[in-house]
Structure formats: structure tokens, C-alpha cells
Write a structure and sequence with these properties.
Elements lengths: L2 H7 L3 E4 L2 H9 L4 E6 L8 H15 L3 E6 L21 H15 L11 E4 L1 H4 L4 H7 L6 H6 L1 H7 L5 H4 L1 H16 L3 E5 L3 H15 L4 E5 L12 E2 L2 E2 L9 H9 L3 H11 L4 H9 L4 H19 L1 H16 L9 E4 L8 E3 H7 L6 H9 L3 E3 L2 E2 L6 E3 L4 E5 L3 E7 L1
Parallel strand pairs: 2-3, 2-5, 3-4, 5-6, 9-15
Antiparallel strand pairs: 1-6, 7-8, 10-13, 11-12, 11-14, 14-15
Helix pairs in contact: 10-11, 12-15, 12-16, 13-15, 15-16
Length: 405
Amino acid sequence: MTVFEELQRRGLLAQLTDEEEIKELINEGKATFYIGFDPTADSLHVGHFMAMCLMKRLQMAGNKPIVLIGGGTAMIGDPSGKTDMRKMMTPETIQHNVECFKKQMSRFIDFADDKAIIVNNADWLLNLNYVELLRDVGAHFSVNRMLSHECYKQRMERGLTFLEFNYMIMQSYDFLELFQKYGCNMQFGGDDQWANMLGGTELIRRKLGKDAYAMTITLLLNSEGKKMGKTEKGAVWLDPEKTSPYDFFQYWRNVADADVIKCLKMLTFVPIEEIEEMEKTMEGAAFNKAKEILAYELTALVHGEEEAKKALEAAKAVFAGGGNSENMPTTELTADQLTDGAMNILEMMLAANLIPTKSEGRRLVQQGGVSVNGEKVTDPNAMIAVDGEVIIKKGKKVFHKVVVA
């Protein structure tokens, strides 16, 4: 089975500029390709994860990845898929985020011996002369055609700034720069990036008279059509300080039945033949087994085998009831946070990041969705004594340990 065939069977391919050329390049290990990541936070999240898995798959087949960190484009903000303008960040914040991204990516991509490189588009975008850019690049873009793309149509109704309107030109210029400097012949990205990627292939053709290629990968959507990787506490981060390995494991362990096979295909390196065999017997307990495999494989990829084993053991112990809570997510309270050695249940859940607001916590408690040390709590004013460890259970699947430091 070729790399291209595997990508097809895993449901990863969305849109391609030139299927036969792309197929030949990646199957023969001749693609020097890039994927861009704008450093809008100090950690990568699940939304980035599939792109990095694709990079890893293609690198394993002999192709060369270029990781483009958008230190320059992050100063503008991509309007694609957004209903509002992105929050503006300072250069210092962007640089800090760039360094965080670099550190995390080294877990997935092999940068030794020039097998892959990381570049930052701030190195060329921030030094551009505006008038020269207008003459050399702007002349090759049709405003009418740009406005016909869906990414701009969505924003036109709410207001599209001239700042954001330049994003497509900046991303296209990135492709041109990488093509000329590193021989980059292909760009990959999420399906919402299609218009920006076409802009780059067209700019290379117009400026240099040469061919470059673009391919988008399927967006990771759940069975309801919503982007995966979000919880009530926000994004599912790859940084263990922002989303613990246990919480990361639990996110995937709790995906909907309708999504588990898709996630196994698109995100893991479990052989596709094994997943297709699993798919044939998906009923009852088989769903739970598949979810456990999914959660373990992804946690091992992001946090390592040891953390994946800890998360698996903790989950099994907790769900068995009264088991070992050693690896359970834990919040440490200080003595001065307590009143006579106790704390209000809503305050405790807020401190543990189990609820976003007290009002939501109050509803949850009153509806019988919270237990403490195995006993249901239905009074939002209840004071919980913190003597040793306190195990809070939220709903059917979320467990959290609270101790005094």
C-alpha cells in the first residue's frame, strides 16, 4: 500500500490541485512540503495535532517537512473560519509562543540531519517594503476573485478589515519564499485553508512560471459537524501544564461512539487494516475497547508511553470504584483557603477547574451530578471537609482529587 493510498483509506484527503503529481511526489519521497502554524497561544492544541500526524506520516515515507511558524502572519490574523477579528498580540507574546511551539513539535517531527526544518515567516515578512510588495505581488491578485472565496464571504457580513484582507497575500508570499529558498514544492493544510493555498500556487506560477502543489486534509469534526478538541474548560492542549495527560486521555476515552473509528483512522498510527477489522465489529463493548485504544495511542504520542500507562491505570482504577487515585488529576489547596478545615463545594470545584462559573456548578449540584468520596452532594452550600484526599466525581466520567498542600 502506498502512502497516498493509506491517506485515502484513513479519510484524510480533502482537496488537491493535481492528484497524479501529488501522488507521485509523496509516494516516491520527493515532496518538500510545508504546513503553517500561527502562534496564537503558548501551546499547540488538538486542532494542530492532525497536521503534525500528517507531517510524521509523510516524513516516515522519506518526504521532507518544513514547519512554518507564523511569527509574521500572527500579527495580522487569518479570517478563515472566523466570525470576528483575531485579538492582536504583541511581538513579545508572539515570540514566546513561537519558542513554545518549537519545543512541542520536536516530539513529533525528526529534525536531526536536516530531515526537517523550522522556519519563521517573521524573518521575511517583517522586512518587506510595502510599495514593492504591492507592485511585485499585489498585481497578481484579483480582488473580485478573493472576495468570491468562502473565507471572505463569511466575514463580509460582519465587517472585514483591510488588515485581514492581506492575509491571503502574506500566506501566498510564504509559499513563494519557501519555493525559492528551500525547494518547497507542496503545501498542506486544513480544508478551511484552500483559498489561501491556491493563492500561493498561482503566485508561484505567475512569478516563476513553475508548478507547485497544494493539498488539504479533512477537518476533524465530530458527528454533529463541530470541530473536535473543545471542552467546557476550553481547548484540549498538548502542553501537560494546560491539559494534564489524564484529562487528555479522558477526552479521547469519552468521544462519541460515532466518532471513535474516524479518530483512530485520522489520528493514530494503528495499522489501517486493524482499524478496518475493528470497524466490522463495532457494537456494545467493542466501542469501549476502541475508545481505550484511541485514548492510549494518542496520549502516548503526545506525552509518552509512561504517561499513557499512568492515565490508563488511573482511569481503570477510578471506574472500578474506590481504586488507586495516585495518577488522578489533582488540585492542591492551601490551608488559608479553608474555613475550619472545610471548603464550599462550589468553591472547591472552581479551584479544581471542574466548572467555569458558580451558577453552572449550582445547577450541576442541584441536578445530582456531583459526588464527593462516593456520596452525592445536592446542596450548593455544602461544606466539604478536606481531611486527607477528597475525590470529586462530576457526571459519570470526570474524577478529580483535592488535597491540602
